Amino acid sequence: MDVDKARGPGTGSNSKKIALPFSDTPIMNRNKEMRKKTGSRRSSLGMRGRRASSLIDSGHSAIPHREVDSAEFYKHIEAEGPSEPRRMKQLMTWCGERALAKKPKLGSLNSNAVLGARAIQDQLLKDFSVKSEFSDWFAREDIPRPPAIVKPNPRNIEHDEKIVRLEERIKRLKAEKKQWQSLKNKLPPELPPLFPPSAPENGSSSGQQQSQQPPQLPDPSLLDAEEAQMLEFITESTGKLSLLKPQTQARLQALQSTLEFKVDRLADGVHKVEQRMAAAGRQADQVLALSAERLRERDERERTSAGTRDMPVMEVLRSLGRILPEGGG
C-alpha cells in the first residue's frame, strides 16, 4: 500500500509500504475457539442485572421500589430460577411488607398499640419466610370435598306438577262417570221426551192427550249441584219464553198498525224537502240574473256619462295616463 504524504508546497512526496497481516489476530483466534466450544456467538443478555427475586437464596428480601405497584410484583420474580412454592413465598412476603403500617412517631397517640401490632405482623412475615408449609400448597392436606347437591331440573318439577293435576282430573272424571252410570241404571226403560212435538190439528185424541201431558223432568236430588242448577235454568227459561211470546206478538202488531202511516209521513216529508230545494234554486238563479243585469246597466250608464262608451279600455287608460301628473298623484 502506498501512502503519499504532502509536506507542503514545493516539496516532494515520499511513498511508504505497510504490510497487512494475512493471518487472524489473537483475538479472532480466541473467538473462534470459543464458538467451537459453545456452538454459537456469545450473547450479552446473560450479562444483564439479575432480578430481585434471584437474591432469595442468599437471604436477602429485596423489596421492590415503592413506586412499583403491588399488582406488578409478579413481574419482578424470576420465572426460571426458584420453584413455584418459593416464588409464592416471595410474593406473599413482598405483599406483607408493603402492607405493614408505618412506624409511629415517638410520643404519638396509641404508639404502643401500633408498635405491638407491627411486631405481630413482623413475626408473621418471618414465619412466612422461614416455614415453607405456609406457602407450599403441594404439601397441603387433602380435604375431602363435600358431596355435590343435585338439584332437580325445573322442567321436571313442572312436569311432575302437571302429572299430579292430570291424575286428580282423571280421578274426578272417573267418579263423574260412575255417577252418570248409576243414574242411568235408576232411570225407567222408556222415558218420554222432554219437549214433545205438538200434535197436528187433525190428529187423534190420544195424540192430543200426550201433547197436553207435561214432560217428566229428572229428580234434582239425584243430580249434582251444577246439574241441578242447569235443570233449574232450563225450566225457568222455558217458562219465561212462554210468557215472552204473547208480549212480542202484541208489540209487533202495534208497530205494524202504525208502520204504514209513518212511512207515508216520511215519504211526504222527503217530497216537500225536494220541492223546497228546487224552488230555492230557481229563486237564487233569478236573483243572480237580475243582479248581473243591474250591474251591466250601471256600467253602461257611467260610461255614457263619462263619454267613454264607445272607446276601448286601453284608449281610456292612455288618456288618463296623459292627464294625470307623473308619480300617480
From TrEMBL:
Q: Name one GO biological process term.
A: cell division
Compositional bias segments (type: Low complexity): 200-221
Q: Which GO terms describe its cellular component?
A: MIS12/MIND type complex
Task: Map out region (Disordered) in residue numbers.
Answer: 1-62, 181-221
Q: Which InterPro entries match?
A: Dsn1/Mis13
Which Pfam family, an example, fits this chain?
A: MIS13
Q: Where is the composition biased (Pro residues)?
A: 189-199
Domain of life of the organism in this record? Eukaryota
Name of the protein described by the UniProt record: Kinetochore protein mis13
- List the source organism: Diatrype stigma
Q: What is the lineage of its organism?
A: Eukaryota, Fungi, Dikarya, Ascomycota, Pezizomycotina
